[in-house]
Write a structure and sequence with these properties.
Shape of chain B: globular
Structural class of chain A: mainly alpha
Largest sheet of chain A: 2 strands, antiparallel
Number of helices of chain A: 13
CATH topology of the largest domain in chain B: Rossmann fold
Distance between the termini of chain A: 62 Å
Radius of gyration of chain B: 22 Å
Strand order of the largest sheet of chain A: 1-2
Strand content of chain A: under 5%
Number of helices of chain B: 13
Oligomer: heterodimer
Shape of chain A: globular
CATH superfamily of chain A: ABC transporter involved in vitamin B12 uptake, BtuC
CATH architecture of chain A: Orthogonal Bundle
Strand content of chain B: 15-25%
CATH topology of chain A: ABC transporter involved in vitamin B12 uptake, BtuC
Helix content of chain B: 40-55%
Largest sheet of chain B: 7 strands, mixed
CATH architecture of the largest domain in chain B: 3-Layer(aba) Sandwich
Number of strands of chain B: 14
Number of domains of chain B: 2
CATH class of chain A: Mainly Alpha
CATH class of the largest domain in chain B: Alpha Beta
């Protein structure tokens, strides 16, 4: 395959975990819940996913367990910010510090002080008969793990849900103007809790993807900033499912590009290539501009009794 | 009431952080107990970290000497961290010392972790990597009575310590590169070989240089014109995903023998090589492990370059006991037995194994490439 085709395949590989985590943030922010704790949620999802896959041998159970674990951790955030109206940024950051530490703790408790490398069997890819043999597109779209198909599907579902369904519009109204939503009989608190549950589960799936579908070992710090990049992807994607897909593919592309260019070696210092993702981010940010497009009530606590 | 609950939640989180954040392990205590006894994190103050570590367990060594290791990668990374940790444990078994480790720490926590152990009165701080040099020198200046062993430290580093309490343990990077490069030169079929680095350290560059010159020298003797792809750097020792992507990209460039100096990044590369071999239906792309014998860990590993760091650490411990520690460079070479080639598997044909062992013999006798 050509350099370009391999590059695009690598971009997709690197974009998928990011996509799950960014969609997690989208659901959260659409209900007015700015959750910067994605890094921590993905970290706990990654560890629990690995651990369950290691014990049971099932990557699917690993994914499920990762989702449940991150959902549970995110309930701390939900309770503090929705019920107690605490500051969302502070609690998001607390999750970012707490959850990776908890993941390290659980790993060390389970695996003890041993220094053996623990490896699992990754989720197998499923090729769609007939379609997978199409040159290039077959590998890109129809010869992946089921989680990649799920990510694609999730984007479509998200676009339809927020754009075409009454429930989706109700959900968005909570993030735009919760008091108005409440006067229309929309259960604001319940929607916010559901958003937090979806956010936790999806971020956990994104983390678990790293250890059950991508790398067959667990390394502390393996989320490697994806939780923060996902936050940027939501902004780049203008809080839409399609936009987030493009943003995640863009970030995945930049990372894959710097790796491929380092290997191809054009006689330039490798540091130059390592700068690419950061330069691209700055350039795109300047092109996107600062026009406010996010939910208007994002980050604001909702107090039912308050005027 | 709500504020009170919020405060309580915050307190629970902070306590959780203090209890869980750092990963320590003592020779004596159970894993759960040792993990709860955090040594230090960027968030934890030195004094708090020190008192936590002090409570971490009884000493098991037969002597009243203690060594503490810090490591930025995990001790279960299947590579560098694992080998260095095992080296310390083995050395302690030989010498009767007690040990403790803090792993997976950020660069910002190097110094804090070291001084946490210093304040607890550890006799020796074992820092396995060139990247700890600045933190070690700073701590060595403040704790003149404590010995610091810097694995892969610079040749000039001990002289920079005013208190003469720093020793560099320096496995010969060129010989490490030779051990891997000569086998790569013999085994490559595509005549393209690869090297993956974690960070651009002097020792990494030394290994790459040795790897390149040995592969090309051996390749020439075999009638091959060997291309060594330029070294690539993940910018980290824990980015397994980068290792996967680097290996895939290098395989696309035709590389069929890999060597690395990148800890968990290497583990990712081996995963990608195994996947490529599986897709091809046979093992045609190989990896040379390091720094311990990794034969059997992955299908693609055909041999390892082995560094017996435990001998170097034991020498440091011996010097501390005798009061002669510091201000020197202890070299690890093929000649003194610290460096060696590990076991080989059947993927290396018998005649190639014989040739390879002959090259290793030449290196030991210092006649290689002469």
């Amino acid at each position: 395959m050509s350099f370009a085709a391999n590059l695009i395949l690598a971009s997709v590989r690197m974009a998928v975990p990011l996509l799950f985590i960014a969609l997690a943030e989208l659901y959260s922010e659409r209900a007015g819940m700015v959750n910067i704790g994605l890094e921590g949620l993905a970290a706990i999802g990654s560890l629990v996913g690995f651990l369950v896959c290691f014990i049971t041998g099932s990557a699917w159970l690993g994914i499920l367990a990762g989702a449940v674990a991150a959902l549970a951790v995110n309930m701390i955030y939900a309770f503090a910010t929705v019920t107690l109206c605490a500051n969302q940024i502070v609690y998001g950051m607390a999750i970012n510090i707490f959850a990776p530490a908890l993941a390290s703790f659980i790993y060390r408790v389970y695996f003890g002080s041993g220094s053996e490398l623990s490896q699992i069997t990754l989720m197998s890819g499923i090729g769609i008969p007939g379609l997978k043999d199409i040159p290039f597109l077959g590998d890109l779209l129809f010869n992946q793990t089921p989680m990649v198909y799920l990510a694609y599907l999730l984007v479509i579902v998200t676009v339809i849900y927020f754009g075409k369904t009454r429930s989706g519009l109700n959900f968005k109204s909570v993030g735009e103007h919760p008091k108005a939503a409440a006067t229309l009989g929309i259960p604001v608190i319940r929607v916010k809790y559901i958003a937090c549950m979806l956010c936790g589960a999806l971020a956990g799936i994104g983390g678990a993807y790293l250890t059950t579908c991508y790398a067959n070992t667990y390394t502390e710090g393996n989320v490697a900033g994806r939780g923060f990049i996902a936050l940027a992807a939501v902004i780049f994607g203008r809080w839409t499912g399609g936009g987030i897909l493009l943003a995640c593919l863009f970030f995945g592309f930049c990372d894959a590009l710097q790796i491929r260019l380092q290997v191809a070696n054009f006689g330039l210092p490798y540091q130059f290539f390592q700068m690419i993702p950061y330069i691209a981010t700055v350039v795109v940010l300047s092109l996107i501009g600062s026009k406010k497009a996010g939910p208007r009530a994002g980050g604001q606590p909702y107090r039912r009794e308050e005027r | 009431m709500k504020k009170l609950i919020a405060l309580l939640l915050a307190a629970v989180m902070l306590l959780g952080l203090a209890a869980c954040a750092a990963k320590t392990d003592t020779a004596a205590s159970a894993p759960a107990a040792s993990a709860s006894a955090a040594a230090s994190t960027p968030a934890a103050s030195t004094s708090a970290a020190a008192s936590a570590a002090a409570a971490s367990g009884d000493l098991t060594g037969t002597k009243d000497f203690k060594v503490a290791m810090i490591c930025d990668s995990s001790i279960s990374d299947g590579g560098w961290g694992m080998a260095c940790y095992n080296a310390m444990v083995d050395a302690c078994k030989k010498t009767g010392w007690s040990y403790e480790v803090t792993d997976s720490i950020d660069q910002s926590a190097y110094y804090e972790s070291i001084v946490a152990y210093c304040s607890l009165g550890y006799n020796l701080i074992y820092a396995p990597g060139n990247q700890y040099t600045d933190a070690v020198l700073q701590a060595a200046d403040e704790y003149p009575d404590i010995a610091f062993a810097l694995l892969n430290g610079g040749e000039d580093t001990p002289a920079k310590a005013a208190n003469k309490n720093v020793t560099s343990l320096l496995p010969n990077a060129q010989q490490i590169g030779w051990i891997a490069g000569s086998l790569a030169g013999l085994m490559t079929q595509s005549n393209t070989i690869a090297f993956i680095g974690g960070m651009e350290l002097d020792t990494t560059l030394g290994k790459y240089k040795g790897y390149t010159e040995a592969a090309q020298f051996v390749g020439k003797a075999e009638g091959k014109d060997i291309k060594v792809l330029d070294p690539v750097y993940a910018g980290s020792f824990s980015a397994t995903d980068k290792g996967i992507e680097f290996a895939k990209a290098m395989i696309d460039q035709g590389a069929d023998v890999f060597f690395g100096d990148a800890s968990a990044v290497d583990s990712g590369a081996r995963q990608a090589i195994d996947e490529a071999n599986k897709a091809a239906g046979s093992v045609k792309i190989y990896d040379i492990g390091q720094p311990s014998d990794l034969l059997g860990q992955n299908e693609c590993v055909i041999c390892s370059q082995v560094t017996d760091n435990s001998s170097l650490v034991a020498l440091s411990m011996d010097a501390v006991e005798k009061g002669t520690f510091g201000g020197e460079v202890i070299y690890g070479t093929l000649q003194n037995g610290v460096l060696s080639a590990g076991k080989m598997n059947d993927l290396i044909p018998a005649d190639v194994q014989t040739k390879y062992l002959d090259y290793i013999d030449q290196m030991t006798k210092e006649t290689f490439m002469k």
